[in-house]
Amino acid sequence: MTSNLFAENLELMRVRFWAHLTMAYVFTFWTCYTLYKEYKLITSMRLRFLASQSRRPDQFTVLVRNVPPDPDESVSQHVEHFFSVNHPNHYLTHQTGFWGLWGTSVDAIDYYNAEIEKLLNKETAERERVITDTKAIIPAAFVSFKTRWGAAVCAQTQQSSNPTLWLTEWAPEPRDVYWPNLAIPFVELTIRRLLMAVLLFFLTFFFMFPIAIVQSLANLEGIEKVLPFLKPVIEIRTIKSFVQGFLPGIALKIFLIILPTILMTMSKIEGFTSLSSLERRSAGKYYLFILVNVFLGSIITGTAFQNLNALLHESASEVPVTIGVSIPMKATFFITYIMVDGWAGIAAEILRIKPLIVFHLKNAFLVKTEKDREQAMDPGSLGYATAEPRIQLYFLLGLVYSVITPFFLPFIVIFFGLSYLVFRHQIINVYNQEYESGAAFWPDVQRRVITAMVIAQLLLLGLISTMNAANSTPVLLALPVLTIWFHIYCKHRFEPAFVKFPLQDAMVKDTLERATEPNFNLKTYLQDAYIHPVFRKHGCDLPLAVADEENILVPTKRNSRMNTPGESKRGSDREDTEN
Questions:
Q1: What angle (nearest 5°) sits at the alpha carbon of residue 382, between those of residues 537 and 412?
Q2: 212 to each of 252, 255, 303, 377, how far by Cα in Å?
């Protein structure tokens, strides 16, 4: 009788294992199918967007860094000479950058008129000094071409036999430029990024210890041990439920408040030259951090340090097993985390309580003019560097618990439903758009979803391997292999559209514009597109360092001048660009 009961239980367990394995394949294939369709759709939309765009300065412009010094020429002359020789049929003009000219103007407050007048005079004198000082010119330039085709060839090819000189890349659109990082030399850039990688490693993995302390104290036993006099209060049923359910999530949220600022500062030190690249890099750091500390850290160090100690001393092959055993026990914590961080976060996003409080504080103590009030009411932008990695964390949680704890899924579905409604409203009606990326961030999103799938598959493998289900291991091993193959296929199939501009499309666009606007003066349109905001704001439209033959004769080693097209008024596209 006993043996028959045991056999029946064993058979039932095997059936349940195969149900989990089947659902693991179902979720994997459905996720891959959805990602493929989305990648294909976004790629098509991006190409249509680029093809249908009106004229923009960044379509014709390449950012050139690490311009080598020349004893006989200034930086501006050297740039003009190099590209006139190496791109004689397509080079048009260029603009060079200046040291240390970023910041905002001082507001005109009535009783400070005299003091402001002095500051403006000093600022004007300093600006004129910098413009005429050749030492203030940085070894970087925005080089513009006559056609999109010429810019695409330059941006996507190597310009010199020395790969560390004349570094070219697509120029960001003017409002996307992060000016302070244009002058960083190649060697210094490499050292900076190495140091930031090391710092990120220590920040990510050693931050787990304070989180472990907080997570250990944010439970009944930890609080009663540290503060024994609170035991009678903690044992009250309502308070006990709050401590067990919400306190760990709240404590974790508090620890993450200052993290985005730290990561953005690290990205700026790394030397990226556009706001979009800074946000993409910060988003990658933030996702790595929350993956290690919020997800893995909460699982391993949620209740005691001995688990972390065991993890650090066991072999790498045992890590998925250790984590797999802990995952089902942490489902309740992550459900409450979704409600505290996810649902409450979405509610706070639509209410915007923090910006409302900040506005009233500024309005009470700092606002003196209408311009001050307008700046205080500025809603800012979406904040991709933090919003996207947080959403990716919920993708990870959903994929991990979809098979292990299906009860988890309704909480995830509710979160994404609310997120879609709220963020769609905020993007359309509230936030400002700092720049236009043309969906260039999607490959990063796809890569992080793939990473989440592989992690979910490995953790499921670790969990099942502890339950005497050796026969299922080879079946599960195929999943991460197939997922990685799918990612490689999508990368080769779609990602080039996000990092390169097809020469065929550039030629079509150029040919169409020459036919429809044969008299358009592109040089006039581009000559001041990349002037630093300090100069543009004060009405100084054209620095002396701009190599524009209509205004300045730039001597070169060739002792000749390029042909200059006749002057013409700028089209309406120029107004669209400035807006």
A1: 175
A2: 10, 11, 8, 39
- How many C-beta neighbours within 10 Å does residue 214 have? 18
CA-wise closest residue to 141 among 127, 125, 154? 154
* pLDDT at res. 298: 72
- Determine the pLDDT at residue 15: 58
Q: Helix, strand or coil for residue 181? A: helix
Cα→Cα distances 259→84, 262, 290, 363, 387, Å: 46, 5, 10, 28, 13
Radius of gyration of the chain (CA): 29
Q: Is 151 helix (H, G, I), strand (E, B) or coil?
A: helix
Q: 257 CB contacts (<8 Å, ≥6 apart)? A: none
Burial 288-317 (b: 16+ CB within 10 A, else e): bbbbbbbbbbbbbbbbbeebbeebeeeeee
Residues in contact with 160: Cβ distance below 8 Å, sequence separation at least 6, in sequence order: 166
Contacts of 44 by beta carbon, 8 Å cutoff, 6+ apart: none
Q: Residue 526's pLDDT band (boundaries 50, 70, 90)? A: confident
> Residue 166 in 3-state DSSP?
coil
Phi and psi torsions of 137, nearest 5°: -80, 130
396-401 LR contacts (CB < 8 Å, sep 24+): 396/291, 396/295, 396/452, 396/455, 396/456, 397/295, 397/334, 397/338, 399/27, 399/31, 399/452, 399/453, 399/455, 399/456, 400/327, 400/452, 400/455, 400/456, 400/459, 400/460, 401/327, 401/331, 401/334
CA distance 351 to 364: 21
Q: Which of the four pLDDT bands, split at 50, 70 and 90, describes residue 248?
A: low
Q: CB burial class (10 A; 0-12, 13-18, 19+) of residue 273? A: buried
**CA angle 387-390-393, nearest 5°?**
155
Q: Which residue spans within 374-510 are E strands per DSSP?
A: none
167-170, strands of its sheet edge to edge: 91-98, 137-145, 61-65, 167-170
Residue 206 in tokens: 């050693």
- Among the listed residues 184, 161, 4, 179, the one whose alpha carbon sits nearest the alpha carbon of residue 86: 161
pLDDT in tens, 58-84: 888 888 888 888 888 878 888 888 888
The residues with which 91 forms a beta bridge, in sequence order, are 145
**What is residue 567's DSSP assignment?**
P
From the list 370, 378, 376, 377, the residue with the least C-alpha distance to 107 is 370
| Tokens at 561, concatenated | 């001048």
Q: Please state the domain extents for the chain.
A: 58-156+502-578, 187-499
Q: Which residue has the tokens 């860094």?
A: 65
Q: What is the DSSP string of 10-24?
A: HHHHHHHHHHHHHHH
- CA distances to 63, 252, 264 from 275, in Å: 14, 28, 10
